Structure formats: C-alpha cells, structure tokens
Amino acid sequence: KNQVEQSPQSLIILEGKNCTLQCNYTVSPFSNLRWYKQDTGRGPVSLTIMTFSENTKSNGRYTATLDADTKQSSLHITASQLSDSASYICVVSPKTSYDKVIFGPGTSLSVIP
Amino acid sequence: NAGVTQTPKFRILKIGQSMTLQCTQDMNHNYMYWYRQDPGMGLKLIYYSVGAGITDKGEVPNGYNVSRSTTEDFPLRLELAAPSQTSVYFCASSYPDGGNGYTFGSGTRLTVV
Fold first, then answer.
1. With contacts defined as CB-CB under 8 Å, which chain B residues touch A102?
2. Is B34 an 8 Å CB contact of chain A?
3. A99 has a pLDDT exceeding 80
4. Which of A93, A99, A103 to mutate to test the interface with B (most CBs of B within 10 A)?
5. Looking at CA atoms only, how far is residue B105 from chain A in angstroms?
6. Which end of chain B is more exposed for a tag (fewer CB within 10 A), N or C?
7. pLDDT tops 70 at residue A77
8. Does residue B112 contact residue B15 with C-beta atoms inside 8 Å?
C-alpha cells in the first residue's frame, strides 16, 4: 500500500535555530515529491517540488533533499522565523496516477521567541 | 488573481441536512479536486475532475456528490449530513501534469451536530 509518513509529529524550536523534518514513503514508482506549508486556517501552499532524479531543491531558507534509493526526503529550515510556524506536509505523486497524490499527515512546527 | 475560492468558510449542519460547498478557480486549470482533512491525518481525496463534464471518485467518496459543468466551478454536495463528515474541506486545482503543484482554496470548516 502506498503510504507517506512524516516525523516528528510536532516540533518546537527557538527563533533563529535550524530544523529538519523527515518524510518516508513507500510509493513506487513515483513521479515527484512536494513539500507544502500550511498555515493555521489556510490551504497548503507549495514550497518545493522534486522529480525522482533530483537530489535537492531550495526555496529561500527552505531546502528539500531526496534519496530515491532509501525513499526518504527531508525539509531543512534555516534561521527559523516566527512566520515559519505551520504544518509542513510531504506529498508524493505516483508515476502511474499523478492525479491521485498521497499526502503525509504533516509535521506541526512551532517557532517561539 | 483570486486563485481558488471556496465558500462558505464555516458551516454548522444538523444531522440529515444537505448543503453544497462551492469552489471556483480562475486559472483555467483542467484538474480540480476535493479533499477532506481530519486532525492528525493526511488529506484524503473525495472526488476529482479532469475537465468539464468529467468526474471520478477518490479515496473517500461515500456521502458526497460532485458536478463539473464548467472549467471554473466544482461544487461538492452533501446530501444527508452525518457526524462523520465533520472535517475541514479543501478544494484544489492544477494543470494536467500537476507540474506546478496544486493550488488550494482556504478551506471550509464543517461541523455536523
């Protein structure tokens, strides 16, 4: 069964610190992997997208990595800001049905002063 | 540029009542989706549409119906509301290959009592 798991479930860090969120998936073969940021009360917004052949993708202070061999991805946030407080969702698209993507449960990040 | 617009933002229904969640997009996306998000769970696909006049079931379609008469609009209908349908509902749209990711609406928080 195609699944996407994320860890940790929740995380609290001090403003200015770095953090790394993890995503493990069993989807195979897959077309691409995306990370979304979801602010409280809002819809998810795309941060990065990587195809199976890409290893890393950056978007400002956000850097996503992908290891297709171990089926793991990580999202690294550098110099965190209060506005980074949100849920971060890993999403994997199966190669055979990109219209039926699989969402992870998300990691809830709280950045405190 | 409005993107994906959902209405209403909040709604309380009594068991057995019916309602329609509205969704419209102005990006000329062919693909549209309805998801529900329950606490601690990944988004689950209810229904999706690959173009006007074409709809298909997702992972959790029971208790819902959709229609797609135009490219812009994709309403979701609840016929006989049940407490299990208490959730946050998100509408999304994308290009056929999903290459730029999904654009999500801001969500509808529905409570069935």
1. 42
2. no
3. no
4. A99
5. 6
6. N
7. yes
8. yes
Q: B77-110: per-residue pLDDT in tens?
A: 998 999 999 999 999 999 876 666 889 999 999 9
The answer to whether residue A103 neighbours chain B at the CB level (below 8 Å) is yes
Q: What is the residue-wise DSSP string for chain A?
A: ---EEEE-SEEEEETT--EEEEEEE---SEEEEEEEEE-TTS--EEEEEEETT--EEEETTEEEEEETTTTEEEEEE-S--GGG-EEEEEEEEETT-TTS-EE---EEEEEE-
Mean pLDDT across chain A, nearest whole number? Answer: 92
Q: Please, which pLDDT band fits residue B51 given cuts at 50, 70 and 90?
A: very high
Q: Is B42 on the interface with A (CB under 8 A)?
A: yes
Residue pair A91/A34 in contact (Cβ under 8 Å)? The answer is: yes
Q: Diameter of chain B by CA atoms?
A: 40
A100 pLDDT band (50/70/90 cuts)? confident
Are residues A13 and A80 in contact, defined by beta-carbon separation less than 8 angstroms? yes
